[in-house]
Amino acid sequence: xxxxxxxxxxxxxxxxxxxxxxxxxxxxxxxxxxxxxxxxxxxxxxxxxxxxxxxxxxxxxxxxxxxxxxxxxxxxxxxxxxxxxxxxxxxxxxxxxxxxxxxxxxxxxxxxxxxxxxxxxxxxxxxxxxxxxxxxxxxxxxxxxxxxxxxxxxxxxxxxxxxx
Amino acid sequence: xxxxxxxxxxxxxxxxxxxxxxxxxxxxxxxxxxxxxxxxxxxxxxxxxxxxxxxxxxxxxxxxxxxxxxxxxxxxxxxxxxxxxxxxxxxxxxxxxxxxxxxxxxxxxxxxxxxxxxxxxxxxxxxxxxxxxxxxxxxxxxxxxxxxxxxxxxxxxxxxxxxxxxxxxxxxxxxxxxxxxxxxxxxxxxxxxxxxxxxxxxxxxxxxxxxxxxxxxxxxxxxxxxxxxxxxxxxxxxxxxxxxxxxxxxxxxxxxxxxxxxxxxxxxxxxxxxxxxxxxxxxxxxxxxxxxxxxxxxxxxxxxxxxxxxxxxxxxxxxxxxxxxxxxxxxxxxxxxxxxxxxxxxxxxxxxxxxxxxxxxxxxxxxxxxxxxxxxxxxxxxxxxxxxxxxxxxxxxxxxxxxxxxxxxxxxxxxxxxxxxxxxxxxxxxxxxxxxxxxxxxxxxxxxxxxxxxxxxxxxxxxxxxxxxxxxxxxxxxxxxxxxxxxxxxxxxxxxxxxxxxxx
Lengths: 164, 504
What we know:
Chain A has helices spanning about 10-30, 45-65, 80-115, 125-145, 155-160. By secondary structure, chain A is mainly alpha-helical. Chain B has helices at about 1-10, 15-30, 40-45, 55-80, 90-100, 105-135, 140-160, 165-175, 205-220, 240, 245-270, 275-290, 300-310, 320-325, 330-340, 350-355, 355-390, 390-410, 415-430, 435-460, 465-470, 470-504, and strands at about 180, 190. In chain B, helix 2 packs across helix 17, helix 4 (about 55-80) packs parallel to helix 17 (about 355-390) and helix 15 (about 330-340) packs across helix 20. At the A-B interface, helix 1, helix 2, helix 3 and helix 4 of A face helix 8, helix 9, helix 18, helix 19 and helix 20 of B.
């Protein structure tokens, strides 16, 4: 990091680097696709073209970011992103909970946690969310629309309700 | 004549009419909530439409899109917060009118302008779409690929503030679309050995992730302040202030008509969309206005022009979608998904195979315009009060939970939920780093057709890639794409240079 701002990590610079890495990865995976069509254009061409374009654009973006440095870094701060990272973790946890414990219990756990992350602190509201959200979503989607519900691998409350 | 049959079909179906009115109301409310877009609502409600007949499903989502464009004006005028990007131009004069105690008048002119603009756009679509389809039918694979190429480049370079990031977003959409079995050789590609990816990345969870979950992440991070309305005085003169007189309407009428045509023209071009149309119309309206000094301070014409253009985009944006399978907007990309889910192949042959459905959909659009027009004219203030009562800290967690069940409902697959989460994180990061999620989704939808057209073209060709230069229409579209990218890059470079000069 220098006084005139050159070499600072900017959003454009990081974006360019990310594009280079993603483009290179796509190219590497695409080059493993076998060319089976003779005399025509094989299944490899579109992925290679896509990956190549991302890589090339990434190089242009990175060079552009190096040539036009900013006075100060404009990268997002970790502490600002923390709530989102927590919500990402909740999303993954919610999926895991549905997979293992079924939709009803998964939603009963995740609904109040999601409300907490958005700033709802009332215990009554959180309790209501834990009861009402799974019930309403279940009734609308799995009963009303007839979607087959995701059953938990370890345990599922629906088994209890349905007497299995 | 087909449109009259379509109108009769819609008018004699009470269930369809119910869905149209419901869509008009939902779209208006969603459009009026800052941060929520009609595209997000459509993506979330898409699984619900699996259980409807194709016309009801398409009409429901199409009208949400139309009404959502109009709904943005409610928040722009009443809360000084544009509900959608397109209504930011409406806010310039709409909110000053509210502060003068004329929110009712502003909402009336916004509603009338939106309705007229939308009707003009739809009428142009109905009259000309058949001709466009006839031209499209004469196109062979090389011309089609050239059109796809131009669409990729235009969508990638025109939307957003960076040509490189926009094009990279479009390229990433292409790469994601190639995941799964190759459609010709049935060869596994880009699946990383995961069996679940053999069927490819599903459109619905991808869209829900990018437009809905991504938006929830963004809202949590930005923690928007609670929406507040300017408390307007309810004195004796309120009714008189808010009465929209004939003289006032006549002053606005030329702006409405001109802006409608501007919006309709921009709507036909892929990727540009309502936001650009409304600002172009606002700029053009101000340039031609007799009272340019009043614009920005509460001129009624300043509300009429962007609102007419914003809504006139809706109909014509369906023309490239229905005739060529090229969505001009994110809503169009979602509608392609609906067509495919119901087993309807879009493209020029759609007008041969499903003519009645297409014209019934246009008729549903006309009914939709009338519905949101009536709801808006008489109930915009009530919708505004409803928005004020919805706490965002409860709304967004509910949207978060709905996104999960919607993504699962698409195919009854928890893998799709995982795709949705990944797409949500991708969409959030893309917004954060100024990439273009809309270009990704539109390219994702286009890529399959483009690849098919390219491969067919090269099979037809004796001279390899030269086939695209030997056919004049194909060459013209390729040139159009390259020129669009060049001019966009040049205009952005000039803008950057001048802003650096100003800063120094």
